[in-house]
Structure formats: C-alpha cells, structure tokens
Amino acid sequence: MVIRVRHISKSFLMFDNPVQVIKDKLFGQEKVARFHALKNISFSANQGETLGIVGHNGSGKSTLLQIITGVMRADEGLVEVQGRVAALLELGSGFNPEFTGRENVFFSASLLGLTEAEINAKLDDILAFSAIGEFIDRPVKTYSSGMMLRLAFSVVINTDPDVLIVDEALAVGDDAFQRKCHARIKQLQSQGVTLLFVSHSAGQVIDLCDRAILLDKGEMLMEGSPKSVVHNYHKLLHMQGAERDEFRQQILTGNISNEPAAIINDEQDNSGQLDDNLVPTSTVWYQPNGAFISQPLLRNTAGQQVNLLQSGHQYDYCFHVEFTDDAFEVGFGMLIKTVAGAELTGATTTRNHEKRLPFVAKGQVIEVRFRFPCLLRNGTYFLNCGCSALVQGERRFLHRGVDAAMFAVVEENPDATGVIDFGIELHAEVIDEA
Asked: How far apart are CA 28 and CA 191, in angstroms?
C-alpha cells in the first residue's frame, strides 16, 4: 500500500476580523464559525494504481491533495505515503517569477528531492518535453500560462516519482500538449507509478483511472469503478435542493438504480438538462462565403434547449443558416466528435438530391435540424456544422464551424462498453450438462 488516508478532517475559521479569533481563543467571548472542508475521509491506493478524485468546485479535492502532499496539516486523521511524491497542484506553483525558466527547473526539482547532478542528467528531457525553446533563459514572469504549465508539468513528470499527484493540470494547454501529457502519464502508469488524479473530464477519469472516489461538501459519497463514480457525479452536479439531497443520500446508502435505458420515441420527450457553463472554447468558424451559420444548439424532442443528454433518448442538433447570396443545390452537414477529435458519426444532405434544396434566395434564413438517438456512453462530445452549395459547377462550403457546440452524456447504459452503445443484448444458456 503506497497511500493510506484514514479519517482525515479539515476545517477553516470563517471570520471578518482577526480580532474575533483572538477573543474566541483567549476569552471565549466570540464563537467563530468554521467551514468543514473535509469530513472523515478514508481511502488507500496500491503501487501502480491510478485513483481518480471527482467532485464539484468546493467539494474538498484540492484541500485533500494538499494534506496528502504535506502542504497543509489535517485537524484529525492520519496520512501515510511511501516513496518520492511529485505533485502539480497549481499552475506554476513553486516557481519564482523573477527566476528564468532554467533556474526554476533547478529550484523546483531540488524541492522534489533531486540532487544537482540528477537534475543535470534530466535537464535535456525536461526541456524537450516542455518545448518552450529559447524562453527557458527568460524570466518566468514573461511566460504565458500555457508555457508555465508545460514547464511545471515537465519538471514534475521527469523526477522519477513513486507517487504522482495531478490536480486539473491536463485541463490547461492546447490539444497537442494534452495528448502529450496523456501519453506520458500512460508511460508512468506502465512503470508502476501510483497516481492521484483530479479532473472534471469524465473521459480522462474513465480512461486513466482504476478506481475513483466522489467528494461532495467535504464528504466521500462513494468509491468504486470510474464509470459508476463519474455517472453519479454528473447526475449530482446538475441537481438542486431537495432532489439533490435525496440523491446524495441514495449514493451514500448505495441505493442507486442504474437500469439500462431504452430508446424513447415520444415526440414530447423532455429528457436532458441545460448547463450554461458547458460552452466550447475551441470553436473555429471558417470564412463565410454566401451564407452565415448561427445559433448551433441541441434540443430535446419537446423543444427545450439541452446539453446534458441521457443515453437512449432522441435529440435535435439545430442551427440557423442566413443566406447572403442566392444558392443552388444547397446541402447541410453535421459531425459528432470525441474530446480527442475522433469522428464518431455524422450526416449530410449533399449526396441525396431529394434532400438538397434546389434554390435558396438571398436574404432567406433556414432552420436546420438533425435528429439523432443518443447512443453514446458518459463523456463530453463536440459538434461540427456546415452548409454547402454548387458554385460554378463545384460543391463548395458556404460556411462551416468546428466545435460549434458541445454536450455531455450524463446517464448511460451500465451494461455497455466502448464509446457507442449499440444496445447489444446477451443471451446465455446451458446447452450441455457436464
């Protein structure tokens, strides 16, 4: 057992003026309120195991990691960690902004227990992974957030840790760097490194972790397979009031129903919810050339806008197309992709002349709707959209968008594996007695 956490609790004083604390401690004149960040948390992790920690903001994830790494002391409980611990808890934590990147490499690596000779031996690998080039000899205060993240992450993963603790670091940086980090973590896992991994990304937790725990309001609600933990985390995340309290209790007692969903064909199905914070930041719109696409979004079959979907239900991907020129043989298209960019499925009307629009006049606005059954597992997905027409005898895009919209599937068929749920049924029977 590499990590052992037993009955950890941590609270913080909540006061407007330090004098309140002095009066409380010395004279008992004022009672200062406490915020209980962690309440009786216990779990363990074995060598080579990856443990995911999920929970909404303020659930106690970062506080727990700080206690495990020794940055913070718990009020109660015991933490035991075997071997060298490397942690990336905050972007550029431990960096001196006045030092150059090279100086910070030596400073940070020494704090992680490496000698100067060991750092020199690993320096080329650190610099190659960070890929910040000549900026390595410039002050860190001149770095962008992405450059600082790359350098900090590179230092941490090149210190040969026995335990690696990562708090949301993979959520920063471009797609190429995220894929690079993902591959490096896979390599460390194969070498037997124990990993504590905090992330809001369902796909990363399910892909990287052997087990996961769910924190909420400082309590550990459940521990189990990454799929089941993420599934219940997503459901809890979008509940409020009495409904949320009831579901929390169901998770704590293990009284949760995960029955497979059947495809719902009701035209007034109002499944799904809307999370205003689930908005893509990677959207790319191409130059319009005769049309303009706007308002890409998802609706359930009752017409309500949603982006938190349930597997087994049907949804409409909708967008408006305003034509700034006359257009002939107009077609529309859509595509669903994973976070990693893998193209899962899509549709186009350009190949079927019966579904193309022979002519659209300048100034007209067309509402496009692609209806699809949600057959996806829990995770986050992105949508492309496009409009094309015949221009001088050739089919050309009038407008298109990449990552124009996004959605998350938060309720899945627990019997399915992979990314897409085909609704496969299992029938097993004895055909020969022993």
From this structure: 54
Q: Which pLDDT score, from 0 to 100, does residue 172 have?
A: 54
SS3 of the chain: CCEEEEEEEEEEEECCCHHHHHHHHHCCCCCCEEEEEEEEEEEEECCCCEEEEECCCCCCHHHHHHHHHCCCCCCEEEEEECCCEEEECCCCCCCCCCCEHHHHHHHHHHHCCCCHHHHHHHHHHHHHHHCCHHHHHCEHHHCCHHHHHHHHHHHHHCCCCCEEEEECHHHCCCHHHHHHHHHHHHHHHHCCCEEEEECCCHHHHHHHCCEEEEEECCEEEEEECHHHHHHHHHHHHCCCHHHHHHHHHHHHHCCCCCCCCCCCCCCCCCCCECCCCCCCCCCEECCCCCEEEEEEEEEECCCCEECEEECCCEEEEEEEEEECCCEEEEEEEEEEEECCCCEEEEEECCCCCCCCEEEECCCCEEEEEEEEECCECCEEEEEEEEEEEEECCEEEEEEEEEEEEEEEEEECCCCCCCCECCCCCCCCCCCCCC
8: tokens are 């950890």
Task: Determine the Cα–Cα distance for residues 119 and 114; give it in Å rounded to an integer.
Answer: 6
Q: Please choose, from the candidates 158, 399, 388, 404, the residue with its C-alpha nearest in 3D space to the C-alpha of residue 279.
A: 404
Is the entire prediction scored with pTM above 0.70?
A: no
pLDDT score at 307: 92
Rounded (10°) angle between helices 101-111 and 145-157: 40
Domains of the chain (ranges; CATH) run 3-253 (3.40.50.300), 284-411 (2.70.50.60)
Tell me how far CA of residue 135 lies from CA of 98, 129, 155, 405, in angstroms: 13, 14, 15, 35
What pLDDT is stored for residue 240 in this prediction?
77
Specify the range with the lowest mean pLDDT, choosing from 45-59, 199-213, 320-334. Answer: 199-213
Beta-ladder partners of 389: 396
- Please report where in the chains the tokens 């609790």 appear, as a residue: 9
pLDDT, position 259: 45
